[in-house]
Amino acid sequence: MAVARLTAEFWVAAYLARLRQADIPAYVIARGDATAGAVLVKCSTLDGLAVAFQRRSDPMSGESRWMELAQGPEAEVDRAIARQRGFDPDLWVIELEDRAGRHLLGEDGLA
To answer: Does position 110 have pLDDT exceeding 70, yes or no?
Structure first.
């Protein structure tokens, strides 16, 4: 039996709702393909630093997990995201702001 995948738009809406529940401000910076667009998450700690995450799938197990794309000065992280958007115009980019660096990507249902 095939497992249905969530559309990117549905996943983004659910993720934003979860962030709101945790009082973590988040914004859609770039809207990608509603059905199959990949998602990047940028977490700014409001001190000039940031980290960006992307979801990667393991081809052998089929499992996906969030991996760090870039970390460091926010301008450098923004450049890394811009490069990814250059490769993939269907990419979603969500930016959140949390001084403690919370992003909730390790929670159940967000892989």
So the answer is: no
CATH at residue 71: 3.40.1530.20
Query: Residues 59-101: pLDDT tens digits?
Result: 777 777 899 999 999 999 999 999 999 999 899 999 999 999 9
Domain limits for position 62: 24-97
Q: Is residue 36 part of a domain?
A: yes
Closest CA to 94 of 21, 6, 5, 13: 13
C-alpha span between 68 and 56 (Å, rounded): 10
User: What DSSP string runs through 60-99?
Assistant: TT--EEEEEEEEEEHHHHHHHHHHHHHH-TT-EEEEEE-T
Cβ contacts of residue 9 below 8 Å, gap of 6+?
34, 35, 37
What does pTM read for this prediction? 0.88
Q: Is residue 54 part of a domain?
A: yes
Count the domains in the chain.
Answer: 1
